[in-house]
Design goal:
Helices cover about 45% and strands about 20% of the residues. With about 300 residues, it is of the alpha/beta class. Helix 2 links the parallel strand 1 and strand 2. It is globular and about 65 Å long. It starts with a helix and ends with a helix. Bound molecules: alpha-L-arabinofuranose. The site of alpha-L-arabinofuranose has 12 residues, from helix 2 and strand 9.
């Protein structure tokens, strides 16, 4: 009798566990760790959500296999931060066509077969960087651009947005543009044009700091202004680098981790949601860095308290 009772006593709709899979493209990066953590904390606050994070570690085929395994496991919803916008499209379409809602986070995919996107506007990131340089009053300016190393939409759009601004400014010249900071290439550029460089705009804070170190070793760091992207408040993050003068500015780029879980919950419960969910970016420089750091540190403290309660 007990068995029959147990079997017929199904969880009510409100109590059902929702299985969410998250496919993370990269992992050797603090911004990615921060995304995973904020997602995991947010999910752990909802006893009905079970979150499974699979890290592809920069391997495009592994990410495709990870997503396929989430489809096979009939996850209730899949969140994807894609490595490559094209090769991943078919498996994202498979998930969507199998009736599984798909949220793309941070990066886009070359398909319309997804449920929603959440992340910041990378064209705006590029515009912010361009405008920051253009707001410098000192005459003609020479800039080196250090782009992202992959083919992702942030890599493309951060560069596109940047040129949309600087191409309109006759007094700004982009003298070199690299994909990543391969030490030798950047070093060579500094040897030939280094003394005249005014700004380095890098795809993220890590690349900006690598470029800064190379310039420092050549005695050029103090005359070049470095701009990064991400603005994490962690020991080697952009916020600290602005505070200690390594970066002139970092463009805060929210991970969207916690927000993606909120969005997933709305979708899973059949509530109304927006297809495009655009998060705000902020330019952080010496004028607002202390305020921003205080705010981020408060949020981190709250997260830590929640983590301690959960563990
Ligand atoms: O796709 C966004 C970028 O990926 C973040 O800005 C970056 O630093 C990360 O790894």
């Amino acid at each position: 009798i007990l068995f029959v009772l147990q079997c017929s006593c199904k969880l009510s709709k409100e109590d059902e566990i929702k299985n969410i899979g998250f496919s993370q493209c990269l992992s050797n990066h603090p911004w990615r760790t921060s995304m995973n953590e904020s997602m995991a904390i947010k999910a752990s606050l909802n006893p009905q959500i079970k979150l499974d994070i699979k890290e592809a570690k920069g391997d495009g085929q592994k990410q495709i296999d990870d997503i396929q395994s989430m489809i096979d496991a009939e996850m209730d919803l899949i969140i994807v931060s894609p490595l490559d916008p094209e090769s991943i499209a078919p498996v994202v379409e498979n998930a969507f066509e199998a009736g599984i809602p798909v949220i793309l986070i941070d990066r886009k995919v070359e398909t319309e077969a997804y449920t929603a996107f959440i992340g910041a506007d990378n064209l705006e990131v590029g515009h912010n960087a361009g405008n920051y340089i253009a707001s410098n009053e000192n005459g003609f300016l020479k800039v080196i651009e250090i782009k992202g190393e992959d083919n992702s939409t942030p890599t493309r759009e951060r560069s596109k947005g940047f040129y949309e601004i600087v191409d309109q400014e006759d007094r700004i010249t982009v003298v070199e543009s690299f994909k990543g900071v391969s030490g030798a290439q950047f070093s060579k550029a500094l040897d030939s044009v280094g003394k005249d460089i005014d700004f380095v705009y890098a795809f993220n804070d890590e690349l900006a700091s690598q470029a800064w170190r190379i310039a420092r070793d050549k005695g050029l760091a103090s005359q070049i202004k470095f701009i990064g992207v991400d603005g994490l408040s962690v020991p080697d993050g952009g916020i600290n680098m602005v505070q200690n003068g390594i970066l002139n500015a970092t463009i805060y780029y929210p991970t969207g981790g916690a927000e993606s879980i909120d969005l997933a919950w709305e979708i899973l419960n059949g509530r109304s949601y927006k297809k495009d969910n655009i998060l705000k970016t902020i330019v952080i420089d010496r004028f607002n860095v202390d305020i921003m750091k205080n705010q981020f540190d408060k949020i981190q403290l709250q997260q830590k308290e929640i983590e301690d309660q959960i563990l």
